[in-house]
Amino acid sequence: MTGAHEVHEMHGAHEAVDRAFRDEWGQVVATLIGVTGDWDLAEECAQDAFAQALQTWPRDGVPERPGAWLTTAARNRATDRLRRAAVGAAKLREVAAMERVQAGEPGNDGPDHDGTVPDDRLRLMFTCCHPALALEAQVALTLRTLAGLTTAEIARAFLVGEHTMSKRLTRAKQKIRHAAIPYRVPPAHLLPERTPAVLAVLYLLFNEGYSASAGADPVRAELSGEAIRLARVLTRLMPDEPEAVGLLALMLLHDARRSARFDAAGDLVLLEDQDRTRWDAGEIGEGTALLDAALRRGSPGPYQVQAAIAACHAAATRAGDTDWAQIAALYGELVRLAPSPVVELNRAVAVGMADGPAAALPLVEALDASGRLAGYHLLPAVRADLLRRLGRAADAAAAYRDALALAPTGAEHRYLRRRLAEVTEES
Amino acid sequence: MKYMLLIAGDESAAEHAEDGCGGWSEEMTARGVIRGGGGLRPPAEATTVRVRDDQVLLTDGPFAESKEQIGGFCLIECADLDEAIEIAAKHPAAGYGTIEIRPLWPQ
């Protein structure tokens, strides 16, 4: 007889497996790669371990340390498979040696061990984001091995066929193996050039999810959540890296605005028009606190500065209260730290808000003349807004038309058309 | 791990042909990572060989006429790709040409 209590327990166990998948997948895979050196084997054994948990946890209860249980189960699978594949005794001994490092058997999750599994996730992050791999491969590997997304899900998130994505992952894993890309956290002298690659992959993931329109595949929108989760792991594993903390702060401060960014029709709502009561105060509070902690280390970088800009916006309860002078100064700092024409355009927007459109227009026109943003729809869009505010309706209309010809998504198109209608009515 | 460093450059790289390796060879030999290598005379002096239907076919010139040509090679043996990258990046030719790092099949 199955009473209500058991049904409840069973439901709880399934939830626990789901939670463990989110929290532990990366660590289980990372540990298995560390021991076997075989990425495919590691993924398969991790999968088996989660399948086993789904069977046994509802029956035997959720182990006290799900991560240790899963790692042990996966390691046992690896030993079985390697034994069946008749690999050398040396490799088997290596896998068996894990037992000494990490006690705890499935079903024997006693209090006699502290459940500390050596955390290999940092090694895995740096290896996935090795600059000898193409950026798209880095992103795909990170999602597969650290976040546990399936190949099909990653393919959907990046709008490519599953076959293409599968080939991309296979090729990347083969290169890691055959070119001997080391599975390690780079030594100190390489960290300054390698850490930004890891941060860049996480930020790209976040932005892919953040820019997903309302009707996009949920997997795509969930990329932001995955990026935040991975950034949390990274900040725990690299507590002395202020840029990692800055990136997490930046993501949280942006993510806080998520539900206010699109209206009911799926149209993009500009920052100044967003309903600020819908911003997530919890994320803003956490992001701001993280940023303050990072800045106190006195080693600013592009992510900390971008987070500081986001914090300025978050601190303004009304759009009119925004400290644009501060934001313009921060963009100036960002241009210095990470020069890019897009950052210069953003600085021009901030100058336009702080000192008026007449001060900003020459900056935008200089950018336009440089040709460095040719084809980028926001350049004519910004120019159009400045011209509109200067009362030059005909010039503004022409610039809105330029922007419309280049704008990529439906929501931005609709916004630009609305503005265009406004300036053509006025003239 | 064994890697082949293929050193390529455009025509302007030819002027570095007599430069030597600015201490690189000495350093890498002392480190014990060099397994062989050398500089190549210009591609104009290359002969390409193919055998098709038992016929030996010869072409005057390199594999392909491209802007960048292989001007030298070096076989190294080191721990992993990171070390190979470090070795390649230290080679003077990395400053004016391009170095391709190719892992070898294990023997």
TrEMBL record, chain B:
Specify the YCII-related domain's residue ranges.
1-106
Q: Which residues cross the membrane?
A: none
Q: What InterPro entries does this protein map onto? A: Dimeric_a/b-barrel, YCII
Q: Which family does it belong to?
A: Belongs to the YciI family.
In Swiss-Prot or TrEMBL terms, this protein is called Transcription initiation protein
Q: What organism is listed for this UniProt entry?
A: Actinomadura rudentiformis
